[in-house]
Amino acid sequence: MERTELIYCPFFLEQKELKPHDIALIEGCISKEEQIEELKLIRKNAKKVYAIGSCAAFGGILNLSNKLNGEPISNYIDINGIIPGCPPPEKLLGNCLIRLIENKEIQLPEKNMCATCPLRETMEIKSDKTINHSFSIPNEALNRDDSQECFLNKGILCLGPITRDGCEHVCIKQGVPCEGCMGPISKDFTSNMVNFLGLFNISESFKNYKEIFYRFSKPKFREA
Ligand code: SF4
Ligand code: SF4
Prior knowledge:
The protein is α/β, with parallel strands linked by helices. It has two domains: 21-101, Rossmann fold, CATH 3.40.50.700; 113-214, no CATH class. It contains six helices and five strands; from the N terminus they run βαβαβαβααβα. The chain has helices at residues 33-45, 53-58, 90-101, 170-173, 189-197, 204-207, and strands at 21-27, 46-52, 81-83, 130-131, 201-202. The strands form two sheets. Strands 1-2-3 form a three-stranded parallel sheet. The mean pLDDT is 86. Bound molecules: iron/sulfur cluster (2 copies). One iron/sulfur cluster binds at residues 113-114, 117, 119-120, 123, 150-152, 158, 160-161, 172, 177-178.
């Protein structure tokens, strides 16, 4: 904070006018028409723009709503990068902010979650496995006991294989599988997901859980 000057932050600063500045960090998805104008104004005044959190980066959890649509800010303006996560992991966010203050580009992990997962050694992917989503699994079947092993071995969906590393496995350490809030390790979450699920048999109850495709990322569909 000593090395920066915060010039605009509607949550806790009174400044109403947006002046030219070096770095804009934008949180939240775009869900209303008037936000697009404000977004463009920020882009015009900022040398660099970053999307902070999975809503700004991918559209986010608002896409589970039947009424509203959450668009990533990059659908409307050019951005210089994202700092993903729901919320962004504090260590990753801190490191990214320090790099930005030092006028360096941010660096995100380029591995998937499984690469550093504490349960990695136990992982045995078997293609005849039937996979369930975690909501249909009783609590006691999740990793809440001492015999912790990779969720996929137990037939529970874990999105670690297609999710960017960097959150220090907060959910997995709490005994629940990863749902992908750090976003895809490569560009398109939806096609990664389809390819990944193609490795397994899918349980009947899971077939109705369409929301997993857009829990954190708005899917991109191509025009036919
Ligand atoms: S699938 Fe999930 S539990 Fe298994 S190694 Fe990957 S991140 Fe860990
Ligand atoms: S384990 Fe998955 S869902 Fe949980 S914080 Fe990490 S990336 Fe997000």
